[in-house]
Design a protein that fits this description.
The complex is a heterodimer.
Chain A: H1 2-14, E1 16-21, H2 24-35, E2 38-41, E3 54-59, E4 62-67, H3 70-83, E5 90-92, E6 97-100, E7 104-107, H4 113-128, H5 136-141, E8 151-158, E9 163-168, E10 173-177, H6 178-190, E11 196-197, E12 212-218, E13 222-229, H7 238-276, E14 282-286, E15 289-293, E16 304-310, E17 315-322, H8 323-326, H9 329-367, H10 372-399, E18 406-409, H11 410-420, H12 422-425, E19 429-434, E20 440-443, H13 445-466, E21 474-482, E22 487-494, H14 501-504, H15 522-532, E23 536-541, E24 548-555
Parallel strand pairs in A: 1-2, 4-5, 19-21
Antiparallel strand pairs in A: 1-3, 3-4, 5-6, 6-7, 8-9, 8-13, 9-10, 11-12, 12-13, 14-15, 14-17, 16-17, 18-20, 21-22, 22-24, 23-24
Helix pairs in contact in A: 9-10, 11-13, 13-15
Chain B: E1 4-8, H1 12-24, E2 28-32, H2 35-44, E3 49-53, H3 61-68, H4 74-80, E4 81-85, H5 90-98, E5 102-105, H6 111-119
Parallel strand pairs in B: 1-2, 1-3, 3-4, 4-5
The chains are: A alpha+beta, B alpha/beta.
């Protein structure tokens, strides 16, 4: 903050850098006048609305309206040059009125100009040091205008606080009640000539004695009172009152700037405290330089993604996030599944050839009519390699989202699903009840298998979670054909604990799970697949006996 | 006179088993695992049937067929070559069929019918 102000002071000590806006003949006539004080950039963006009686000066981001009067124009530029370190909007109109921040106006008689400029230099010196509210009363008394004054008090209230603060020229800080502050503030504010109260009634809260000059300041987040006194009961003269009024206009600007700065620094300290306990790396960058970070991680090693926010001026906040943290568990799960699919493809291709070889050679050896046990073993080898191959194929089919519908026997598909789920359901009794030997229907075998497979897994997990000995538990798969509704019902019943009342409505919602390691996607995917098959799935408690019943209604 | 068959298959268990099965059926069988050896054999000898795997270690079965066109007409190729593949994607199948060859997916669904086709 300090550095920037210094550098700006330097450039303006050389010359002001401005752009002129207006029609070309007008600009040409003013160019010469401006040259004494300013470096004029050729073109300026036409982003400001031009008014008839003014010519615009644009200095970087700040705009100044200057009057269309050659004499005043040069004076205004001189003033501008002095004011510009404060980066503030200023307007000088034809009547030589100065508007600062649109709050107050004050006349600027020409004969006071030199006094005025020297005040500026003084103020700049006082306020460009690192601003501390404690030192302010003393600094104000050090201004040549207040030479004859002995005491100064500042009452400051940050909006929203329940108490106000008082500072005096000795650097003593006092906390005062908000009600007392407000009473004084309103009294000074409402006084007829608004700026001072001549006859003081000495109060404990006010340090000054005798007649005093006072002014109220209203800022965005502060209310402030400035009180100066000679510690005597003589009334200030009219010229003193004028001068005080005049100074207050400028003090207002300096105060607002400095308070804002102090507030920013306070806020910055708060941010720093917050950041230091944050468990991800955060960096504060000003003008591309790191001014603070919580140095959690070594930035050269980590992979990161960052977000930058512009806080104020050139300050950026950078948040470093590790990539793996960005991924939700569901996305990770999804990525694993995709990887698993690729893996299964490779497995299928790499394993099925040798397995086929095994099967063929075992069969050939068995054909050579070896003695009993050897022949049996060879036939076993042949059959088992064939089974291995079909398991790999089925798994791979599960992951290949082949969108092909085919006419197939649902019993075969149910059996395939049982083979897939074999390791999960091996300790549990299973029964497949069918009324016919074949149930032919047009379906997508992959989707169908996936639904049945999922239902079997759910049933077995429910059983295993409820009991240690699952040998007495049973999963029954029932296939029935309903010619009226033209559907085949696949009913999967288990003897597990069933579903609690409160969970019944949630079952098919994505991400709902009662399992520690579950994704909560299984049933919701099943429902989605069933919808694509024009089928229906439902899961309920068994009305007769215990356990849950999964009903999969597939069209004929 | 017995039928002369060349088996090009890099999975040795399959190669040996097929050789044995076909020899039992009375065929005269030569077997190789390398595609380049196969091309040399095809160009130098006369086979009635060439049973070729697609995914070989050095080159693909399609490369073997392309090289064989130096000696055989398109018609001869379609009758002589039989393609085996474990990689049953539709693109591979389409390409194989464009040569007019018969294609068998491994593992063979019907062993007897496949062997019969090999000996025709």
């Amino acid at each position: 903050m300090e550095n920037q102000s210094n550098s700006r002071t330097k450039t303006t000590q050389d010359k002001l850098r401005i752009s002129l806006l207006g029609d070309s003949t007008l600009i040409a006539s003013y160019r010469e006048l401006a040259q004494e004080y300013a470096i004029i950039d050729e073109c300026a963006p036409h982003k400001f609305i031009l008014e008839k009686e003014h010519v615009f000066c644009v200095e970087t981001d700040y705009k100044f309206k200057l009057p269309l009067n050659p004499k005043n124009f040069s004076n205004s530029l001189l003033l501008l040059k002095r004011l510009s370190p404060f980066n503030k909007k200023m307007l000088i109109d034809k009547n030589e009125k100065i508007f600062l921040n649109k709050w107050k106006k004050s006349s600027l008689p020409n004969d006071k100009a030199s006094q005025f400029f020297s005040l500026f230099d003084e103020l700049m010196e006082v306020f460009h040091k690192r601003f501390k509210i404690e030192n302010l009363p003393l600094s104000i008394l050090s201004l040549s205008h207040f030479k004859s004054y002995n005491s100064c008090q500042i009452l400051l209230h940050e909006k929203g606080n329940i108490s106000a603060e008082s500072y005096d020229e000795k650097g003593i800080k006092k906390i005062i009640d908000i009600k007392i502050f407000q009473k004084n503030y309103n009294q000074i504010r409402k006084s007829k000539n608004k700026l001072f109260s001549q006859i003081p009634s000495p109060k404990d809260e006010l340090e000054v004695v005798g007649s005093f000059l006072a002014s109220d300041f209203e800022f965005q987040s502060y209310s402030m009172l400035l009180i100066v006194s000679r510690n005597e009961f003589l009334r200030p003269t009219i010229s003193e009152i004028d001068s005080f009024e005049f100074i207050c206009v400028f003090l207002r600007y300096f105060f607002s700037e400095s308070l804002r700065r102090e507030r920013l620094e306070k806020r910055f300290d708060n941010i720093k405290n917050l950041i230091s306990v944050w468990d991800e790396k955060i960096q504060i960058i000003k003008n591309n330089e790191n001014i603070f970070d919580n140095s959690l991680l070594n930035s050269t090693q980590e992979k990161h993604e960052y977000t930058a926010y512009n806080l104020h001026e050139n300050i950026q906040l950078r948040l470093y996030k590790r990539h793996e943290d960005m991924l939700s568990p569901d996305l990770q799960h999804y990525q694993r599944i995709v990887l698993l699919g690729d893996l299964l493809n490779t497995l299928q291709h790499e394993l099925s050839n040798p397995l086929f070889g095994l099967k063929l050679s075992a069969e050939i050896l068995a054909d050579d009519k070896p003695c009993g046990e050897l022949k049996e073993t060879l036939i076993d080898i042949s059959q088992h390699s064939e089974r291995c191959q079909s398991i790999i194929k089925n798994f791979s089919n599960l992951y290949h989202d082949k969108k092909t519908f085919s006419y197939c026997d649902l019993i075969r598909l149910v059996k395939e699903s049982m083979v897939l789920a074999k390791s999960e359901i091996k300790d549990i009794q299973k029964e497949l009840i069918v009324e016919d030997n074949e149930y032919w229907a047009t379906t997508n075998p992959t989707w169908f298998t996936q639904i049945v497979f999922n239902a079997l897994l759910n049933a077995s997990q429910a059983i295993k979670n409820a009991t240690l000995n699952s040998r007495n538990e049973k999963i029954t798969i029932h296939l029935t054909k309903n010619h009226l509704s033209k559907t085949i019902k696949i009913i999967i019943e288990d003897t597990g604990p069933g579903i609690s009342e409160q969970n019944l409505n949630m079952l098919f919602s994505p991400f709902f799970t009662t399992k520690k390691e579950g994704t909560g996607l299984g049933l919701s995917i099943c429902q989605n697949l069933a919808h694509k098959l024009d089928a229906k799935v439902s899961l309920n408690n068994n009305t007769i006996g215990k356990g849950a019943v999964f009903i999969f209604e597939h069209p004929l | 006179m017995s039928i002369k068959i060349l088996i090009v298959e890099d999975e040795l268990l399959i190669q040996k088993s097929l050789k044995k099965i076909l020899e039992k059926k009375g065929a005269q069988v030569t077997a190789t695992a390398q595609g380049k050896d196969a091309i040399e054999l095809i160009l130098n000898e006369n086979f009635d049937k060439i049973i070729c795997d697609l995914m070989l270690q050095d080159i693909t079965g399609f490369d073997v067929i392309e090289e064989s066109r130096k000696k055989y007409s398109v018609q001869q190729i379609s009758s002589k070559f039989i393609i085996m593949t474990a990689y049953g994607s539709s693109q591979v199948l389409e390409k194989a069929l464009s040569y007019g060859c018969r294609v068998f997916n491994k593992p063979f669904e019907d062993m007897d019918a496949t062997i019969k086709a090999f000996l025709e």
